Fold each of these.
Amino acid sequence: MLPKYSFLEHLLFPPTKVHQKKLRQASQQKTILITGASYGIGEASARLLAAYDVHLILVARTASKLTALKKSLEDQTAQISIYPTDLTQVEEVEALLLALKKLPNGLDVLISNAGHSIQRPIQKSLERFHDFERTMAINYFAPVRLFLGLMPLLEKRKGHMMNISAINVLLLPAPHWAAYQASKTAFDQWFRSVAIEMESYGVSSTSLYLPLVRTRMIAPTKAYQNVPAMSPEHVARLIAKSLYRPKRTWMPWWSIFARLGSFFCRGLWEFLVPKFLQKS
Ligand SMILES: NC(=O)c1ccc[n+]([C@@H]2O[C@H](COP(=O)([O-])OP(=O)(O)OC[C@H]3O[C@@H](n4cnc5c(N)ncnc54)[C@H](OP(=O)(O)O)[C@@H]3O)[C@@H](O)[C@H]2O)c1
C-alpha cells in the first residue's frame, strides 16, 4: 500500500506500476546490495524486493534497525543478509568488501543509496569545514570506494549499477545547500563517466534523479513539511522497475521544464534569489 498523495502530488508523481511477473523473472536468484537500507528509500526498497526470490544484502550503520528489518521480513521469499557498516570508515568497508567477495553467487545489482544531507547557510558554516568533509565522505568517497571494490563482481555477472541521485544536481544550485549539492553532483559526474565505460563490459546503469522524498532526511527542514514530496515506497517501485526495464536515467516528467528554466533563467535566478534572501 502506498501512502496517500495530495491532488498535486498525484499530478507531479503519477503512479508507477510494477509488473510483478517481469520483476520476478528479471530478479530471480539475483544478489542485490542496497546501501542505506535501514531507513527511508533503502528500507522501502528492501521491503518491496523481499517478496521475490533474491538475495538481499542490506548495508547501513544502525545494526539494531537492520536486525529488526531482517526479522520483520523473515516470512518473505528473499534471503536476507545484513552488514552493519559505516561506509565512511575505510576498515569497515574493507571488511565488507572481503565478505562480499566470498558471496557464492557473486553480485548482480548494486543500489548506491546511502546518503546524508545538510542544509545550512554559508554564514553559519564558516567554522564548519567538517560539514563539507562529511557530506563528501558519505555522498562521494563512500560510493566511489564501494563501486571500485565491487566492479569486478558486477562485471562478472554483467550486472546493474544504480545511483540514487537528486534532481537538484541537474538544476541551478539552491542557496543553503552547498555541501549536499556539491557532493551529490560530484558523485553523479563520477557515476555517469564510469557507467559509460562499464557498459562496454556489459554492466548497465540507472541514475534516479529524485525530487523531494518524504523520509527522515527532509524531516528537519520545516519549509518542506507542506511541499509536495514522493513517498519512499513510490521510489522503491521505481527502483524495482529499473531491475526489469533498465533505463539510464529516471527523473520526474516535469523536470524538463525545471531544466529548461535552469538553462534559460540563470541570470534572473541569480538576480532575484539574493533579493529574496535579503528580505527573509
Ligand atoms: N529524501 C529526499 O528528499 C531525497 C531526495 C533526493 C535524493 N535523495 C537521496 O536518497 C538517498 C536515500 O535518502 P533517504 O531520503 O532515504 O534518507 P534517510 O531516510 O536518511 O536514509 C539514509 C540512509 O543512508 C544510511 N547512511 C547514512 N550515513 C551512512 C554511513 N556513513 N554508512 C552507511 N550508511 C549510511 C542511513 O543509515 P544509518 O543511519 O543506519 O547508517 C540510512 O539508511 C540519499 O542518497 C539521498 O541523497 C533523497
Amino acid sequence: MNNIRRGWCPSLFHPMKTGDGWLCRIKPFFAKLTSRQARFIARSASDLGNGFINLSQKANLQLRGFTPEHIQQFIPFANQENLCSLNALEEGKRNILISPLAGIDPSCHQDTILYAQCVHHEIIENETIQFLSDKFSFVIDGDGLYPLTQHHADINLRFYHNQWILQLGYAQQVIPCDLNHCPKLLKQILEFCHHHNYPRLLHQDHTEQFLKETSISGQSYNHSTSSERLSIGQFPQGYHIGIPFGLLNSHDLNVLADISDQYGNSTLQITPDRSIILPYCSAKAHGDLKSFITDQNDIRLHIISCPGKPYCFQGQQPTMHDIQKLIHFWHSKLQTLHISGCAKGCASPQKNPMTLCATPKGYTLILNGRADDKSIYQDLDLTKINSLFLTHSKMN
Ligand code: SF4
C-alpha cells in the first residue's frame, strides 16, 4: 500500500488547498437544503470560487476555487443561512450521514430525524468530542426506500429487524438502542473513547472491549449490504436525479432550486451517492432535468471519478477530461468503474470491480481492489485501457 495521508478531513473552518484553489466544504444539516440555501450556495460558488461544486460520498457539497480570504468572507454568511455550525470544533465533528428520505418516505422509520438530532445534540454538548478524530462519523439509517446498510461510520444507528440498534464500525455484535436510551449510550461510548484515547472506533476489538467494560449484552447483526436502493427517476414521493460524476456548477444548482420551487416542496435532499432527491417533485419537471441523469440505465451512474488534475494537487492525470472518452469504452451496467486521480482514491475508498488509478505515466488498472492496490496492468494509455476493458467484458 502506498504511503498516503488519509487522516485529515477538511471542513469549512479548516479548508484544504487543492489544485484549483481552496476547497470550501458545506455539510447541510440532515442532508437537506432549502431552495434558498441552494441559491445562496450557487451564488457563492460563482462569486467567490470557480463555480464548480462536487458532491461527496458523505452527502456534503464542496465548493472549489476559493481563496482563504473568500472563505473567511463566506463563513458568517453561511452561518446566517444555517449552513454551518457556530464554531470550528462543532463543524469539524458534525459528520452525520442520515437516510436522505427521512421524513419523506413513509417506510423510513419515523424516529430517524429524532436519532440524528440526538447525535447532533451530543456533538454540541459533550466536551469529550474534542478528543475524537475529525473523521469520526455517525450514520443514521432509518431503512425504507433508501437504506444506508453499505455505509459504515464509527457509530451507526440503524433500524433493523423492527428495532433500533447501535453498531460500532463494522461490528457483528450490536446494542439495542431505543430513543430514550440513546443519549446515555452515546455518552458512554464517547467516555470510553476518551478514557482509552481512541480517536476512532472502527475495529471489532473496540466493540468487544466496550461490551465487556460496560457489561452491556450485544446481539448479533447480519445485514445484507446489497439492499436495493431507490432507483433514479420519478417515485411516489418525488424525483431522484443523478449528478454526472458528482460534479455540479452553480448554474445547475440554480436550475434545481427553481425546479424544486416550481414542481416540488422547495427543498433538495443530498444523498451519499452523488445524487439529489427533489421531494414531492411532479413528473412535469422531467423536461427541465435534461442536464442531469434521470434514467437508471444511464451508464454514467456506473462510473465514479474524482476531479483529478489540474483540480487537485495530487492528481496525476486529467480524469474529468479522460472520462469523456472512457465513458464510451465502459459498457457494464452491472459493475462500477472507479477512476481515481491518484492512489488516495477519495471518490471511492472501498474496493471496486474495476479501478483506474492515475500515475505520472498513465493509469494502473486494478481488478476487484482499491486505488492503492498493486496490479500488473500499469502505465496504460486510453487505447490500452479500451482493449483491456474489451478482454474483461468477454471473460465475464
Ligand atoms: S484521489 Fe483524486 S481528489 Fe483525492 S487526492 Fe487523489 S487526485 Fe485528489
